[in-house]
Amino acid sequence: MFLGKLAIAILVLAIACPHLVTSQRQPICRKIQKLRILHICRAFTKKGSTIRAVSPESKCCEEVRKVQNSDMRCVVSILTDKERSEHDTDKILSLQTLCEIPPPPNQNKTMA
């Protein structure tokens, strides 16, 4: 009797929460974040753009840092076909590194 109830519970869980059963993860970025990055960073990310870098202090990088872990792979994973045709995915991925804020210089160095 217990095994029957357990099997039914597992079946209900599999139907109600398929991403838990199949271990598919929900993206850690949202569509609105992707849209804001594509809009604000468009001068850099548009295909054919000659801009090679963005400043970590830019509005573009502010938006990138709003994505959990600045995970641009997540942003690329939810691009539509149209967005992929208009934006350079390599440049979008590079935003993760370009937008890192460098650590402050070490203040404890001894004077020579």
Short synopsis of the structure:
InterPro entries: Bifun_inhib/LTP/seed_sf, Bifunc_inhib/LTP/seed_store. The protein is mostly helical.
Spatial extent as radius of gyration: 21 Å
Instruction: Report the structural category.
Output: mainly alpha
Helical run tally: 8
- Span from first to last CA? 80 Å
Number of strands: 0
Estimated helix fraction? 55-70%
Q: How do the SSEs run, as a string of H and E?
A: HHHHHHHH
Average pLDDT metric: 83
Percent of sequence in beta strands? under 5%
In the predicted model, the low-confidence regions spanning at least 5 consecutive residues are 16-23
Cα shape: flat
For the sheet with most strands, the description reads:
none
Could you characterize the architecture of this molecule?
- The chain has 112 residues and is mostly helical.
- The chain has a domain at 31-99.
- Helices cover 56% and strands 0% of the residues.
- It has eight helices and no strands.
- The protein has helices at 2-16, 18-21, 31-40, 42-45, 59-66, 72-77, 81-86, 89-98.
- The longest helix has 15 residues, at 2-16.
- It is flat.
Topology record:
Elements: H1 2-16, H2 18-21, H3 31-40, H4 42-45, H5 59-66, H6 72-77, H7 81-86, H8 89-98
Helix pairs in contact: 3-5
